[in-house]
Amino acid sequence: MSTSERFDCHYCKDSLLGKKYIMKEDTQYCTKCYENLFANCCEGCSLPIGCNCKDLSYKDRHWHEQCFKCAKCSRSLVEKAFAAKDDLLLCTECYAHDYSSKCSTCKKTVMPGSRKMEYKGNSWHETCFLCHRCQQPIGTKSFIPKDTGYFCVPCFEKQFAYQCCACKKAITTGGVTYQDKPWHRECFLCIGCRKQLSGQRFTSRENYPYCLECFSNLYAKKCVGCTKPITSLAGAKYISFEERQWHSECFTCMQCSVSLVGRGFLTQRDNILCTDCGREK
Prior knowledge:
The chain is α+β, with helices and mostly antiparallel strands. The protein has helices at residues 31-38, 92-99, 153-159, 212-219, 275-280, and strands at residues 21-24, 27-30, 55-58, 61-64, 82-85, 88-91, 116-119, 122-125, 143-146, 149-152, 162-163, 170-171, 176-178, 181-183, 202-205, 208-211, 221-222, 229-230, 238-241, 244-247, 265-268, 271-274. It is built from five helices and 22 strands. The longest helix is centred in the N-terminal third of the chain and has 8 residues, at 31-38. It starts with 20 loop residues before the first strand and ends with a helix. Pfam families: LIM, LIM_FHL2-3_N.
C-alpha cells in the first residue's frame, strides 16, 4: 500500500483502516489516542470519559452518566432536577432537607422552586402566610405587622386603626389629633371656609377650629381706622382706648395723620387728634 493510500492515526500513526476512529478539527485519531489526548475527566470517578460513554456536563465539569449522582443519597440525577451547593450536586430532596428554609407556620421545608413569602429572615409557604384576623392567605397583597402577627390591610384597619372623627374611615398614615380626637389631614378643615388646617396656624371657638382669617373676620374686634379685624394671633400690635381699638399703624391724628403711638392726644367727639391739631380747634 502506498503512503498516499494510508489512513493513520494522527498521533500514534497506527493504521485506522477498518477501525473505529474519531475526527477532531479535520484530523483523525484512534479511540485510544483521542481519549488520552482529549477526553474529559469524570468528577465522580476521576477516570476519562471514553468515546463509548455519555459525557454529562455542568458548569465546565464532566461526569460519566453512571457517576452523575446526588452527593448525599447517591440517586441518579440524569434528567432530574438538582441543585449545586459548595461544588456538590444534590437532588432537590436532599438540598431542601439540608439547606432550604423551613416554613414558620407549618415547620415543613419550603422546597426549591415553590412559591414562598419571606419577611425579616422568616419564610412561609405562600398558602401558610395568613392574615392573623381573617385567616386568609395574604399572597402578594400588602400586609402590616403588628405584635407577633401579620394582618391584611382591611383587617388591620378594622382592628387597630383610628377612625377619623369627620369621615369615620380608618387613618392608616399620618393624621392629626385635635382635642384628643383623630382626623385625616385632609379632613381637618376650617369650620368657616373649609380650608385644610394641617400644618397651618389656627385657633378655635366653642370647640370648632378656624383658620386665622375666618376667626378674625367673625370674632376679632375691628380697627377704627381701617375697619379691618385686629387679631393678636397674627402678631399684630394694637392700641385700645375707651372700648375702641386701632392697629398701631392706624392710630394717627384724624387731621394731620401723624402717628399718636407713644404721644399725647386729645379727643373731639369720636375723633382722635394730636395735641397741636387739638389746640387749633
